[in-house]
Write a structure and sequence with these properties.
heterodimer, A: mainly alpha, Cytochrome Bc1 Complex, Chain D, domain 2, B: mainly beta, Sulfite Oxidase, Chain A, domain 2, five-stranded antiparallel beta sheet, 6 helices, 25 strands
């Protein structure tokens, strides 16, 4: 197969990264979409990756609570638990 | 929401993103090393950061900026790689970027821009245009370090949540503008004024989030070095460093250096917003604080104010290899809250002995002070080269971390390991 022209490659790169932050990968696992939908509404998801892995369950729960109570994040109560579970499991310590 | 304010540069920017990612891969997967082995961290990231940062932080260029270490896209938080600190003045396009909230002005229209000067402590509120700033007041200049309170947070042990800054959430520039005291004088400052409250054009994504608003005590506002700056190193402020005007509070951490200044309010009561009452505070008694912010102090904590004395070694690089008999110039910069650097010492034997470094060019007491010390290792082996700065009031860098929950004021001495073969 003939290699695609360079302009196409660049256009694809530019298109795919028109929002570079969308390239920030999170671990594919149950809860990921809830995390993306909630956390990602106010900030990019790289915050989760750089802040890992050192928070335990209490630490991640405190972060989620801070986002709701102090920063006014509109996170539904049932989602808060899912988010904390996902973060502890994939970006935390001590399960 | 933030979008590229300079659309025409988007393509270039995105290509740089990819370049940045390529750079990471090139470093992380060197030639023949097995991919499954622990990859070497990217060379622009220092040691001691949270593990996830080595995967997530990439070099990326914001419009108008060089590739910097991207810690967060939105709001943008980008730190300056250590290699830029070989110059005591930090170039505008390499200067770090820090925002708290993601609604950043896309473009500021200068002709319609106004800076509101008001508050219950101002008898004569008024508005300023850029022309007023340039023509209505005496123009002054100060060279000063702008350092994020959380610089080196990522090196806290144990780690604490927040933007995981390494060594480069700081920069030193020549700021030009007008004295805040002159602006306040024109507003007819009432003697009951206790604080001056600052707000910028950036804000939160949802109105439930506290807007980033800060205050400084009136005595600091009236300090002749506190200025409303609209030139940085002889140029307009870069968009991401607060265009068209920001507050410059020499000696104090950058949290008070409000970007995209929109309002200055003289207040007769202490400001009680979240970013004063709950954030940017240090536990009482843990750090040396000469310039206290009494109207915001409580029994447990006080606002972070003065920067602690600190240094950064820019050369040799971590892990650098030398031949036996080869001399190396140990070089770096030192800074403090504006008392001025008195002494920088270098140890090459894990702190057993210390040698006085030569201090370089003096751009004033608020600026980075370059220093250097020539070291000829006595033989083959591994050496830990460490610098320690002391200021003119006798404050010095600490040997062990003074832990605090927000990871502020990290001025632990920091060795650079080199190998002589």
């Amino acid at each position: 197969m003939k290699a695609p022209p360079i302009w196409l490659a660049l256009a694809l790169i530019a298109g795919a990264s028109a929002h570079a932050e969308e390239l920030v990968p999170l671990k594919e696992a149950p809860g990921m979409q809830v995390v993306k939908g909630n956390c990602g509404s106010c900030h990019s998801l790289d915050y989760l990756r750089t802040n890992s892995p050192f928070l335990d369950r209490k630490g991640w729960q405190a972060e989620v609570t801070k986002m709701i109570n102090i920063f006014g994040a509109p996170i539904a109560p049932e989602d808060a638990g899912t988010i904390a579970d996902y973060l502890v499991k994939h970006y935390g310590v001590g399960g | 929401m933030y979008r590229d304010p300079i659309g025409g540069e988007t393509m270039l920017n995105r290509r740089r993103v990819v370049q940045g990612l390529g750079g990471v891969l090139a470093v992380a997967v060197p030639g023949l090393a097995p991919r499954s082995a622990f990859p070497a961290p990217p060379s622009y990231l220092t040691f001691g950061l949270p593990g996830g940062e080595y995967d997530a932080a990439v070099l990326d260029a914001l419009p108008g900026k060089k590739p910097l270490i991207k810690l967060a896209y939105r709001p943008p938080n980008y730190e300056t790689p250590v290699s830029y600190f070989t110059s005591p003045i930090t170039a505008n396009d390499a200067f770090f970027v820090r925002y708290h909230l993601a609604d950043i002005p896309e473009k500021i229209d200068l002709p319609s821009w106004r800076l509101r000067v008001a508050g219950d402590g101002a008898a004569n509120p008024f508005e300023l245009t850029t022309a007023d700033l340039e023509n209505g007041f005496e123009q002054v200049e100060v060279t000063a370090v702008c350092q994020c309170s959380g610089n080196r947070r990522g090196l806290s042990d144990p780690h604490v949540p927040g933007v995981q800054w390494g060594l480069g959430a700081m920069g030193n520039a020549v700021w030009r503008g007008v004295r805040l005291k002159d602006v306040l004088a024109k507003a007819g400052l009432r003697k009951e004024t206790v604080e001056v409250v600052l707000n910028g054009a950036d804000g939160p994504v949802t109105d439930k989030t506290p807007d980033f608003i800060k205050s400084i005590p009136i005595w600091k506002a009236l300090d002749e070095n506190t200025i409303v700056a609209f030139r940085m190193n002889g140029q307009q402020l870069p968009h991401f460093n607060g265009f068209p005007a920001r507050l410059v509070v020499p000696g104090w951490t950058a949290t008070y250096w409000m970007k995209h200044l929109a309002s200055i309010e003289a207040a007769t009561k202490p400001f009680d917003g979240f970013w004063m009452k709950s954030a940017y505070r240090i536990p009482n008694g843990k750090f040396p604080v000469i310039e206290r912010f009494l109207s915001q102090e409580n029994e447990a904590s006080t606002p972070i104010t003065e920067m602690v004395v600190n240094s950064l070694t820019t050369s040799p690089a971590e892990g650098q290899r030398l031949a036996t008999g080869q001399a190396v110039d140990v070089e770096g910069i030192a800074w403090d809250a504006g008392y001025g650097i008195r002494l920088v010492e270098v140890s090459t034997d894990d702190g057993k002995t210390w040698h006085q470094a030569n201090l370089g060019r003096d751009d004033g007491r608020f600026a980075f002070r370059p220093w250097s010390y020539r070291f000829t290792p006595p033989g083959a082996g591994t050496y830990r080269v460490t610098a320690k700065a002391t200021n003119r009031v006798g404050q010095t860098q600490v040997d062990t971390l003074i832990f605090n929950p927000a990871g502020y004021h990290n001025n632990v001495i920091r060795p650079t390991t080199i190998t002589v073969e």
